[in-house]
Amino acid sequence: MPSPVAFTENHQTLPQQGSAGFLAPKYVAALLVLIFSIGFCKFPSSTLIGDGLRHLPALRTITEGPPVSFQPKPWLEVYRNHYDRVVVHNHFLFGLAMRTAFALQQALGIRGDATIAIQAVNAVSAAIGGGLFFLLAFRLGVPKGISLAVTVGVCLSPVYLLAATNVAEVALALPFFLGTLLVLADRELLERSAAVAGVLVGLAAITYLLAGSLVPCIAVAIVASRSSSRSTIKTLFLFLSVFALVFLGIWVVVLYLSGVHSLASLAIAILKFPQQGTYGGFKLGSLVATPVGLTQAFFPILPDDFRGLRSLYHQTPVVALVAGILSLIICALLARAIYLLSRREIIHKVALFSSVLTFLMVEAVCVEWDPYYPKLQIFALILFWLTVAVGFTDSQSDRVHRWFLVLFIAAVAAGGVRVLTTNIQPSQPNKNAQQLHAIVGEGVLITGWSSDVAHLWLYSNGDKIIPLPDFALTRNLQPSRVEADLNTIIKKATADGTNVYFYALFDADDAELANAYDIRFRLSGFASYLRSLQQDARPVGRFVQPGRHWSVLYVYNGKVSQSQLGHAENSPAN
């Protein structure tokens, strides 16, 4: 492999920086991939993220034993019958990739649910991402030792560990995301490397849509870095055309094989963004919340029952103060790194300039979407680490910058070790889900979005689990239609002698309930409707939540047996 091309005379990727023998960067990167893969697999999270668990009913069917078995669904089931429910649009290849991994798991004779395959794929994907990050930092001029340390900091960052040890969809995109930047840093952007970058970023975007934010940023960086307008247009056209071919080609082929054949249906499936109910919409407070959300990606400072900065300030002002201070430090580090890169006139290089632009675009999405959403912030975290590493470790940088970077890495790594120890502790949501499944059985469960309910998909095919937000979204947030269809389900179940349960729906007070459904979901009068259902139901159990709160399980019309009552964790709630 040819030596990397120097960016400038003052910022070189030197081949003499330990590039020979077993300590060559490519061997170190391979060793990192192996170590991280083993480490991530050894510390899988026992509390799984709901977005990944939602895919389980599309991947397999639970067949009651003994023993319990997991039968794979058809290969393209997720695209045929679960496209909107699991928001396939935003992470298109995840379902197919994990269905393939589950098939491999069964072919190897590994018994168990598809979560085994999902966590293994995520662990390996994140480990490959770590190895590529090391190569990327080294080729951008960061000394090998610092590149290694920063890579450890990246891989031990809490939000990166969430992707690596859980069932989140984002980990699969990391090798393609970082591979794209590595191609841009490896050499001058010739036609061949532009084509390779187009392929990789196409795979990154089709795997996780936000990773495609690299595309416009790379385009801007290409235009800004080229002197010849003719060469710029040719390179840019090749990059964008290859990206479009890969991105749209995979999307159209998979949908066509799934039974979507008309051009209109294909266009709707590709262009229509799914409704997300509680997400989206600019709020002035998001400008303050987004830096805090980024800081949470490095340091797990926010409590498990976090409900916003205002509530945090009133409940635990010390934690709010610490969060504010750390957020200011994060912003100051990034601003200093960008200043150093600008002063040395290397920020306009394609890899660095596109990284900075992509960071800003990802944070803008977080402002609009959800400042605390970890799967979004992971891309900002990676680009932050890269920008700071290159900015603080140039040969002209003083020792203060390097020592500050080392201290920052140590602090983040300490938090990461804490996350790994938490991963292997018993999961309260999983325990709650087991108890819920024992009580509800074959009954109908009407509920909201919660970790407990998401873990129910580990024990149920989900046929009779009705998350109200999803139920409302599939009915275009029309209050009359939502209430009428829900009433039909309840009446049919009770007529058939099937119990109907409500979980975590009535716990909030009237104001919070109205804010959740009447305002955020725009279901006028729905809070009153839920209170009317509560009057016809009685509590049969309660389950502990983060912050020592409780979620209560109700049964409609009191139809529950004494044996079911015995499964509740505590006595019936008052």
Give a quick summary of the entry.
It is built from 26 helices and 7 strands. By secondary structure, the chain is of the alpha/beta class. It is globular.
Which features characterize this protein?
574 residues; alpha/beta; 5-stranded mixed β-sheet; two-stranded antiparallel ribbon; 7 strands; disordered N terminus; disordered C terminus
Please render the helix and strand layout as text.
Elements: H1 25-42, H2 50-53, H3 56-59, E1 60-63, E2 69-72, H4 77-81, H5 94-107, H6 114-139, H7 144-155, H8 158-165, H9 174-186, H10 191-207, H11 214-225, H12 229-257, H13 263-271, H14 286-298, H15 309-315, H16 317-343, H17 350-368, H18 374-392, H19 399-423, H20 428-440, E3 444-447, H21 451-456, E4 465-467, H22 468-473, H23 479-495, E5 500-503, H24 510-520, H25 526-535, E6 537-545, E7 549-556, H26 562-565
Parallel strand pairs: 3-4, 3-5
Antiparallel strand pairs: 1-2, 5-7, 6-7
Please characterize this protein's 3D structure.
With 574 residues, the chain is α/β, with parallel strands linked by helices. The protein is built from 26 helices and seven strands. It has helices at residues 25-42, 50-53, 56-59, 77-81, 94-107, 114-139, 144-155, 158-165, 174-186, 191-207, 214-225, 229-257, 263-271, 286-298, 309-315, 317-343, 350-368, 374-392, 399-423, 428-440, 451-456, 468-473, 479-495, 510-520, 526-535, 562-565; strands at residues 60-63, 69-72, 444-447, 465-467, 500-503, 537-545, 549-556. The strands form two sheets. It has a five-stranded mixed sheet with strand order 4-3-5-7-6. Helix 14 packs across helix 16, helix 16 (317-343) crosses helix 18 and helix 17 (350-368) packs antiparallel against helix 18. It is globular, with a radius of gyration of 25 Å.
